[in-house]
Q: What sequence folds into this?
């Protein structure tokens, strides 16, 4: 059994295809620490404890603490990656709209597509000896387009070495938030226009142009059948129209919105505010079967530069794309 305080750390650990945390977990499994004072820490956090590096709180260490030894310097890229991921998670609405997430090693990917007809959606009685109805699943004709999103972190070691890690983490989290917002725009674009395989969203028109009514939302709910309308995406202007509906203004709805910021949503669907959507439209979808997220690896950085040159100019990026699974599970209400 390998112990956390005797592991030799080196930058070559980042080239295994796994994150540093995953590599350390293989060398030093967390299960070995059940019942000890280190229970609850993962393998990376044990290494921070080994070198007495505090990355959060008012008394967090300075950036230079990572570079006191060659072993502790190897921990710095993973710290950057974790902070960026945390920022992505905090600003991330993707988990509210994706049905599956696929991580691939390359850049070429074809998703599966299933677009059943109305007859295929109904499970009719089958007589003895008869064939069961079929659901056809096929690969898409075109590859899913992956988009690389990221930021260039420009800073010299001399400029930040005396900065507290807690403050530096804020900057890294903001980079993650930028990436997450751009990925959300990509996801919304696929919901609206398709993934390049001829599957744009079906349009549902409001009864009166320029006016959004509760009856229009009920129409959207009916059009998406047999899928479940459990998620709705809307830009700022449409959110205002929804909030001003009389059906959304009853006492309970107002109390809930003023107290928690969450409104009672139409048909019980989750209502997400997506400012990047253009025009007067509401995207309704069944989040359980509408969208697949395809990601090529994880957060990518120039590890050597972070360890040896101590920052300078370092690109932090993430490459991902989106594919529609069941095109009929997405409808767009326009008015």
A:
């Amino acid at each position: 059994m390998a112990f956390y305080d005797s592991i030799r750390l080196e930058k070559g650990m980042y080239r295994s295809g796994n994150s540093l945390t995953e590599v350390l977990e293989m060398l030093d499994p967390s299960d070995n620490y059940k019942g000890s004072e280190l229970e609850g820490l993962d393998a990376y956090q044990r290494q921070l404890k080994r070198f007495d590096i505090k990355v959060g709180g008012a008394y967090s260490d300075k950036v230079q603490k990572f570079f006191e030894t060659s072993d502790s310097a190897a921990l710095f890229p993973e710290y950057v990656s974790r902070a960026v991921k945390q920022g992505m998670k905090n600003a991330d609405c993707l988990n509210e709209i994706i049905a599956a997430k696929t991580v691939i090693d390359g850049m070429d990917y074809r998703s599966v597509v299933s677009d059943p007809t109305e007859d295929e959606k109904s499970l009719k009685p089958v007589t003895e000896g008869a064939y069961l109805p079929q659901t056809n699943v096929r690969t898409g004709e075109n590859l899913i387009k992956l988009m690389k999103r990221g930021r260039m972190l420009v800073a010299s070691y001399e400029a930040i070495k005396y900065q507290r890690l807690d403050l530096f983490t804020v900057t890294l989290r903001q980079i993650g938030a930028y990436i997450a917002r751009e990925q959300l725009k990509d996801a919304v674009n696929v919901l609206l226009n398709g993934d390049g395989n001829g599957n744009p969203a079906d349009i549902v028109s409001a009864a009166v142009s320029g006016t959004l009514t509760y009856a229009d939302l009920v129409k959207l709910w009916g059009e998406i059948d047999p899928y479940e309308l459990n998620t709705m995406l809307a830009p700022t202007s449409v959110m205002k129209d929804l909030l001003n509906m009389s059906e959304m203004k009853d006492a309970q709805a107002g109390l809930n919105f003023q107290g928690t910021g969450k409104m009672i949503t139409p048909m019980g669907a989750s209502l997400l505010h997506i400012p990047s959507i253009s025009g007067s439209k509401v995207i309704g979808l069944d989040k359980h079967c509408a969208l697949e997220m395809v990601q090529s690896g994880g957060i990518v950085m120039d590890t050597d530069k972070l360890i040896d040159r101590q920052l300078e100019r370092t690109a932090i990026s993430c490459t991902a794309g989106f594919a529609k699974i069941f095109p009929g599970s997405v409808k767009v209400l326009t008015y």
About this structure: The radius of gyration is 25 Å.
